[in-house]
Amino acid sequence: MKRPSDVLALIFGLILSVVGGTLLWVSLEGTVNWDMARIVAPATLVVIGIIGVFLSHKRDQNGSK
Fold first, then answer.
1. What predicted TM-score, i.e. pTM, was given to this entire model?
2. pLDDT in tens, 28-45
3. Distance of CA 22 to CAs 1, 25, 38, 46, 65, Å?
4. Which of the residues 6, 18, 31, 58 has an alpha carbon 20 to 30 A from that of 25?
């Protein structure tokens, strides 16, 4: 039997990983390119949201939609 995935925990973990990665980058490099962050941050959130939507979509026992 396949164990159900915890989508909320996955999304929360991905967001915290991005925040942790950013803080690690700041501690090593000392600066963030805010012009790049204005593009990358929303795009990252959209990708994480799409992953959450696909993982939370319920399928029947045969695997079809």
1. 0.61
2. 878 877 888 888 888 988
3. 38, 5, 13, 17, 37
4. 6
